[in-house]
Write a structure and sequence with these properties.
Two copies of one chain form a homodimer.
Chain A lengths: L8 H12 L5 H8 L3 H13 L5 E5 L9 E9 L10 H11 L3 E7 L5 E7 L2 H12 L5 E15 L6
Antiparallel strand pairs in A: 2-4, 2-5, 3-4
Helix pairs in contact in A: 2-3
Chain A binds a DNA duplex (17 and 17 nucleotides) through helix 3.
DNA sequence: AATGAAACGTTAAGATC
DNA sequence: GATCTTAACGTTTCATT
């Protein structure tokens, strides 16, 4: 899982194909990567065991299930804390895991500490999340929101 | 593809399960959602045809294939253009599709026009992308970069 | 209209060359 | 890397509610 993997051209074709269709059969895969099905299967298993393929997921467009609003939130944490509590960073990171609206959270360089991608049903839902949950959390100093107007490019794909 | 879909509790359990493991067998799925395999299959096909499941993809962690650096770039476009050319927005959107480093691009509310997620091999690759490609593009006025220090939460999952 | 059980065709997985 | 064999799986059918 942690050793670096050498990928040849065939491996890259396999990864591109499986990032486009994670349920392609080995016969289909074999045809697109120009290899026999059994050799293709062995390479896929090798890639899975090496952690190059960490799993397979169904893609569910949020707007098809009633989550029509996506926002990016830059969050800045409190720099100090009450001495009997855990520090703001640990508190915040633990809280983020429990908030279903937050589908992605990364720590960033720059003036804001964290970037959150938040997926909600509508503006009411967004407003409740920010007012009642995020800003009420003791670790959070403030946040800035940008709403997504349009998806220009969205790929689950790593450009292997 | 465009009609709203009514999802019941079983549909939601199926979506959660397939977002966690897109290659679960129908026997496995059936066990976790408390339904027979054939009924589960019929519901999955219905969700696929309705576009609630738009596809299945293999997940490839960028760092496992040599893409160790992720950055978020806020991009501001030129507000005017040479009259004989297309406007900056159309130029930029078309260019973004051709840049493999840009795995995600959304138009945002707020002072910056676009947010890009950029996945690159290292700082040299990042630097070349920004200096030689992004900032040289006639549609781009300027950009601000934040590098990802740590993934706190990363889910492909819509919280259905 | 949706389900569950069983039968049938297809695919995955392992052994061998 | 390819071929062959068998076990597992996906899909259809049909009776049932």
């Amino acid at each position: 899982m942690s050793t670096p993997i050498e990928l040849d051209a065939v491996d890259r074709r396999i990864l591109r194909a499986l990032q486009a269709d994670g349920r392609a059969t080995y016969d289909q895969l074999a045809a697109t990567v120009q290899l026999s099905a059994s050799a293709t299967l062995r390479r896929v298993k090798r890639l899975e065991e090496a952690g190059v393929i960490s799993g397979y997921v169904a893609v569910v467009p949020p707007e098809r299930v009633g989550f029509g609003l996506t926002a990016y939130l830059n969050v800045r944490l409190e720099k100090h804390t009450e001495s009997h509590k855990r520090n703001p960073m640990d508190l915040f990171r633990a809280a983020v895991q429990t908030w279903p609206e937050v589908v992605e959270c990364v720590a960033l360089t720059g003036e804001m500490d964290y970037l959150l991608r938040v997926v909600v049903e509508d503006m009411g839902h967004y407003s409740r999340f920010v007012m009642d949950t995020l800003l009420k959390h003791p670790s959070v100093e403030d946040c800035k929101t940008s709403f997504v107007l349009d998806r220009v490019k969205a790929t689950t794909v790593v450009p292997v």
